[in-house]
Design a protein that fits this description.
Shape: flat
Number of domains: 3
Keywords: Bacterial flagellum, Cell projection, Cilium, Flagellum, Signal
Strand content: 35-45%
Pfam family, one: FlgI
Family: Belongs to the FlgI family.
Number of helices: 7
Protein name: Flagellar P-ring protein
Order of helices and strands: EHEEHHEEEEEEEEHEEHEEEEEEEHHE
Function: Assembles around the rod to form the L-ring and probably protects the motor/basal body from shearing forces during rotation.
Distance between the termini: 26 Å
């Protein structure tokens, strides 16, 4: 069993209201080398170009709009994350993804695209040269490296135009939100905060939310939150969980998951987990005490005459190692673990991905 270790409160919880906001927009990528949208199949690209030109004062005759061939233009969606406390003038990275049938947007330029939040308001404007890494050829031309060419990034490609209002400074209370719902961790956080800042500073509202009394002035509040985030807290042990990849047979356990006595038969495989009671008797003059140990014996039989025995604690890792040693398939492993879970021998949450 691994020893408990302390973690910073910053790694265990977040402050309510301090969060990112997703932005999305629509724009045109121009300057492509003939790898843009096929306008016969993507009419929205033509409509976007006509609308853009009209806004710039260019009026096209109706006869020419139906025959436009825009091989150097691609319609794209632009996405970005607006960090907490972002102010107008701050720059953001954006991702540009083609939504038409363009073969590549490498080397293109994104024209000015407004980025909106979930409320429909414009919070940033994006524009710049799209960069796609990993696309090229070796000097000798004998090998090529091709990346996904229909999506790229623009570093510092968006400028924030509007700040998101926050309620962090309202009132004398702030809420800490644990990353995972855990009552024992919440109680330990309350204990650590009250020990550092005094009694009645923090109180747990439930297994996730902790209310903390903070200073009213902005300067004192920032200093208080900085000290609060760096408090060391020993989190409670998480619930036992086993994750199994049904395609590859990979098994990941978040801690040592012990098994109760059980017997499973699957095809030509049989798994038996039983207790092995042993007694330790000291010598007559040793002055020690008689001790009774309960070990586990795991017997896995694939064919007559071939039996693998593992002694010690009945850990799930021992069963998995033994099954892999005799060539059990991922499907065999999945069926056996599910049977153990259904029988109540596997006392852990089993998640199959």
């Amino acid at each position: 069993m691994s020893a408990a270790h302390a973690e910073r409160l910053k790694d265990l919880a977040s402050i309510q209201g301090v969060r990112q906001n997703q932005l999305v927009g629509y724009g045109l990528v121009v300057g492509l080398d003939g790898s843009g949208d096929q306008t016969t199949q993507t009419p929205f690209t033509v409509q976007s170009v006509i609308s853009m030109l009209q806004q710039l004062g260019v009026n096209l005759p109706s006869t020419s709009t139906s025959n436009m061939q825009l091989k150097n233009v691609a319609a794209a969606m632009v996405t970005a994350s607006l960090p907490a406390f972002a102010q107008p003038g701050q720059q953001l990275d954006v991702t540009v993804s083609s939504i038409g049938n363009a073969k590549s947007i490498r080397g293109g330029t994104l024209l000015m695209a407004p980025l909106k939040g979930a409320d429909g308001q414009i919070y940033a404007i994006a524009q710049g040269n799209v960069v796609i890494g990993g696309a090229g050829a070796s000097a000798a031309g004998s090998s090529t490296t091709i990346n996904h060419l229909s999506a790229g990034r623009i570093s510092n490609g968006a400028t924030v135009e509007r700040a998101v209002p926050t309620t962090l400074g309202a009132g004398d209370m702030i809420n800490l939100e644990l990353n995972d719902n855990d009552f024992s961790t919440a109680s330990r956080v309350v204990e650590a905060v009250n020990k550092r800042f005094g009694m009645d500073t923090a109180v747990a509202q439930d297994g996730r939310v902790i209310r903390v009394r903070a200073p009213l002035s902005n300067g004192d509040r920032v200093s208080f939150l900085g000290a609060l985030e760096n408090i060391d807290v020993t989190p409670g042990r998480v619930a036992a969980k086993v994750i199994l990849n049904a395609r590859t047979g990979s098994v990941v356990m978040n801690q040592s998951v012990m098994l109760d006595t059980c017997a499973v038969s699957h095809g030509n495989l049989s798994v038996v987990i039983s207790a092995d009671n042993s007694v330790s008797q000291p010598n007559a003059l040793a002055g020690g005490q008689t001790a009774s140990n309960q070990n586990a014996q795991i017997s896995i039989n694939k064919e007559p005459g071939k039996v693998m025995l593992l002694r010690g604690g009945a850990a799930l890792s021992d069963v998995v190692k033994a099954l892999n040693a005799i060539g059990a398939t991922p499907q065999d492993l999945l069926a056996i673990l599910q049977a153990m879970k259904a029988a109540g021998s596997l006392r852990a949450e089993l998640e199959v991905i």
